[in-house]
Amino acid sequence: MEDTKKPAAAAQARGGRRLPKPISFNRLKSSSVMVLRLSSQRVSCYEIASPNYAGKPSVPVLWDKELKTVVNNESSEIIWMFNTEFNDIAANPGLNLYPVQLRASIDDINELIYDAINNGVYKCGFAKKQGPYDEAVTRLYEALDKCEEILGKQRYICGNQLTEADIRLFVTLIRFDEVYAVHFKCNKLLREYPNLFNYTLFNYTKDIYQIPGISSTVSMEHITKHYCGSHPFISPYGIIPAGPNIDYNAHGL
C-alpha cells in the first residue's frame, strides 16, 4: 500500500482547529477506503459525514469514499486495521506488525509507550503547574530509560522483529529533539540515549527512519511549523527555533 496511499499532513487554521482543504483522496486501488488529505478550508470530513457534527475534528481519519463517512479516527485501531485488513492490496502482505507470539509483550509495552511517552510529552507541554509537569516529565524519562535498557539487549523493543510497538515509539522519538525538547520542555535530549538514538550497533531511531518507505512519511519542516503554530498558549508568537537539523539518514554522530 505504500505506493497507493501516501500520508497527508494536517495543517491547521488560526485558533488551533484543524480543518480540511479541498478534499483530496489518494486511491487505494480497488478499496473504497481512502485517506483524506487535510489542510485549511471550512468544510471538514466530519461535517460531510455528519452535517450536525459539533465535536472537535481530529486526525488521523480513515475515510470511506463510497459511504462518505469516517470509518475510524482512533490511531491505535487504524494501526491494527492497516496491519490486517488491506493485505489484498498491500505491497508487503506478509509483513505482520502484531504477530500472535508477541502480542502479550507488544500490548504490555504499548501501555507504557502510550501513557508515558506518546501522551507523556503532551502532559509535560500542556502542564499549567509545576507539580503535574514534574510528575509527567519524571514518568517520561523513566519510560525512556526502560526502553533504552531494553534496546541495549535487542534490536527492537519486543525482540529482533519490528512490531507495532516500535512504530508507536518511533513517531515520538523522531520528533523529540526537534520539537519536544524545546516546545514541551522535555529538555533531556534523545541524543543523550545511546541505544534509542544512534551510537550503538542498531541505531534504533535512525534504523527505523531508514526502512524503505518510512522517511517519506516524515516532514520535519511540517512537524516543526505545526507544533510551533498550534499552541499559542505555549508559543504565542509562533517562532520556530533553529536546529538541530538532525540527519537521520546518517549513522553515528
Automatic annotation (TrEMBL):
Matching CDD domains: GST_C_Omega_like
Stored Gene3D superfamilies: 1.20.1050.10, Glutaredoxin
Highest taxon of source: Eukaryota
Domain GST C-terminal: start-end pairs: 99-196
Protein name (Swiss-Prot/TrEMBL): Glutathionyl-hydroquinone reductase YqjG-like isoform X1
Molecular function GO terms recorded: glutathione transferase activity
InterPro entries registered for this protein in UniProt: Glutathione-S-Trfase_C-like, Glutathione-S-Trfase_C_sf, GST_Omega-like_C, GST_Omega/GSH
Assigned GO CC terms: cytoplasm
Species this chain originates from: Panicum miliaceum
Listed PANTHER family: GLUTATHIONE S-TRANSFERASE OMEGA-LIKE 1-RELATED, GLUTATHIONYL-HYDROQUINONE REDUCTASE
